[in-house]
Design brief:
mainly alpha, Arc Repressor Mutant, subunit A, about 0% strand
Length: about 110
């Protein structure tokens, strides 16, 4: 075989270039989207666990159940908003000061 047909492979050769180099922004964007999707799915699974309806019998406490429901709403809104109380308050259509007071009342730390 003649050496004229053998081409040395260098780092500048198109056959050796990283196939993701020119698409790295797209790749990082897709990874970020997948991460966000996984977070959303985890939140949805946690929310499903919070939906168990208590049995109404002699042990049932209406005010306790309303409080439990309210706490779940607050936690879900904070999770969806990435921990931002201002965004969580907007989701719940509450004043941020009201949300903060409720978090303190229920002892929910957001940090």
């Amino acid at each position: 075989m003649s050496s004229q047909y053998i081409r040395p492979i260098t780092n500048n050769s198109p056959s050796v270039q990283n196939p993701f180099a020119r698409d790295s922004k797209l790749l990082f964007s897709k990874i970020a989207n997948i991460s966000h999707l996984v977070e959303s799915l985890n939140s949805a699974v946690e929310d499903l666990g919070a939906l168990n309806v208590p049995q109404i019998d002699e042990q049932f406490d209406f005010y306790h159940e309303v409080e439990r429901f309210e706490i779940n709403l607050l936690q879900s809104a904070l999770r969806i908003s990435g921990g931002s109380q201002v965004k969580a308050a907007k989701l719940l259509k509450l004043n941020p000061t009201t949300l903060n007071a409720k978090l303190k009342l229920f002892g929910l730390n957001t940090k």
